[in-house]
Amino acid sequence: MSSSSAANQVRASHILIKHQGSRRKASWKDPEGRVINSTTRDSAVSQLKTIREDIVSGNAKFADVASRISDCSSAKRGGDLGPFGRGQMQKPFEEATYALKIGEISDIVETDSGAHIIMRTG
């Protein structure tokens, strides 16, 4: 049983940018939520589009950018969320991750947490 559930797991890293619409408007780098509260959804998405282009073009490394920019505590691990299975992440995040091949980076994915780009690593 456990081996089949492990076989269905994926592993991913992500970069999260929170904004006014995010469920929790605070993060490790913005504990008061000052930046988050003044960030619009469109601004978060456009920041991520630029970041994604830098990574895809080879001008930046995913883990480096995540550790500096991501509003998720996983930033300390270069954005690594570790392995997870179905039903453990918000649905749009889960679906995007499972749709990627290993090494691929998603387009912008939006959840209640904010806007993300996801790199499948396993």
UniProtKB/TrEMBL annotation:
EC class name: isomerase
This protein's UniProt keywords: Isomerase, Rotamase
Keyword ATP-binding: no
Extent of Polar residues compositional bias: 1-11
Keyword Ribonucleoprotein listed: no
Cellular component, GO annotation: cytosol; nucleus
Comp. bias (Basic residues): 16-26
Stretch list, region Disordered: 1-41
Enzyme Commission number(s) of this protein: 5.2.1.8
A molecular-function term among this protein's GO annotations: peptidyl-prolyl cis-trans isomerase activity
Catalytic activity of the protein: [protein]-peptidylproline (omega=180) = [protein]-peptidylproline (omega=0)
InterPro entries: PPIase_dom_sf (IPR046357), PPIase_Pin1 (IPR051370), PPIase_PpiC (IPR000297), PPIase_PpiC_CS (IPR023058)
Record-annotated PpiC domain positions: 7-122
Signal peptide: none
A Pfam family matched in the record: Rotamase
PANTHER family named among the record's database cross-references: PEPTIDYL-PROLYL CIS-TRANS ISOMERASE, PEPTIDYL-PROLYL CIS-TRANS ISOMERASE PIN1
Family: Belongs to the PpiC/parvulin rotamase family.
Function: Prolyl cis/trans isomerase with specificity for phospho-Ser-Pro bonds.
Protein name: Peptidyl-prolyl cis-trans isomerase
